[in-house]
Amino acid sequence: MPCVEILAVGTELLLGQLVDTNSAYIAKSLADGGIDVYGEITVGDNRERIAAAMRGALDRADGVITSGGLGPTIDDLTKEAACDALGLEADLDEESLRDIEDAFAKLGRVMRENNRKQAYLPRGAHVLRNGVGTAPGFIAFRGDGKFIASMPGVPREMKPMMQEQLLPWLRDHFSVHQAVHTRTLHTVNLAESEIDHRIDDLFRNLSNPKIAVLAHGRLCDVKIMAKAQSDQEARDLIASVEADVLRRLSGHVYGVDEQTLPGAIHALLQQSCRTVGLAESCTGGSIAAALTSVPGSSKSFMGGVVAYDNCVKTEVLGVQQSTLDRAGAVSEETSIEMARGVCERLGADIGVATTGIAGPSGGTPEKPVGLVWIAIAHADKRRAVKFEFLGDRAAIQERATIAALALLWRTLQE
Questions:
Q1: FRET pair for 390, CA 20 to 30 Å: which of 15, 140, 229, 231?
Q2: Distance between CA atoms of residues 218 and 212, nearest Å
Q3: DSSP single-letter state for residue 142
Q4: What is the model's pLDDT at position 316?
Q5: Which fold has domain 3-173?
């Protein structure tokens, strides 16, 4: 099985000033294309270190794929390092130079002399043309046939270059004829350890398809990947395993592949011709932001009230002052009245409310930081659930948002 190593270039990555999403995208593209990834490396803008990382990667893998360091500035050194690692000179590529000149002309901007630097590529390289930027990519070769493939670091330039040029070249170069298909099942309210327990024998006994579990917050994905001679054969291999996993995780799978939890909620609401309204305190509107991220959400989302101050709870949502005096703003009773009140004020079929203590201050022994009540009201039914989340303010708000969406989805399922 051919394998490559991924090298991300940029001091900003090492300083934590920028999150490296390119390597994740490249790795997924390679996996979908049937090409293994040996490892991933990040290195700063230092010519000698980049070249050393490239040499080491070529010793371990069949090729290296880099992103970043192809710009016109003095700290863009990937091309020079690749020449050092491969023992090559750089030559001016006239076609790349014309592309760069045309790009500046279309923008009505003056092309500086340092932009010509981008048109100098390792001798004998296969050029990866850049249709949305000025930096061309390239595939350059060592004497033994191993290669360095370099792409720009700007994601909107790298992604089409990867999909339209580099990945097809890699599949042809390595004679990869197998089709790879992945199916992702999205679950909620089921811990990673519980999923592992339920499908443990599939982990141990299956080799094709393979299964992987990825947890993120209160959500967890189960990925099923199969390799076959055709895409349809790979899908057929997945089908029976998917059915088995769905049975074992029944009641917790809200969607597959590109489906999101907010999208699944809107699908259920629209199927039953119902609407939802939100009354948010500690989540500060993040549930509304999640629900409105779905195209067509206006068909089932009425609106929301961010009721932070108690006067908004009483005057806008109709929470009784006596309830606040007796139970407090963060309580089962208040959350239920908020959910019921938003239904009445907005004319929604279902109301969801959150109230809690996100911190870092404001907690007490009786009501600690992380305490959140989430309530749902619909028809003549009221339901409130108590949660105690760990983490800082942002983590508590994020977890409360997911918990509220999960509770709404489960209610609609029931």
A1: 15
A2: 17
A3: -
A4: 97
A5: Molybdenum Cofactor Biosythetic Enzyme; Chain A (3.40.980)
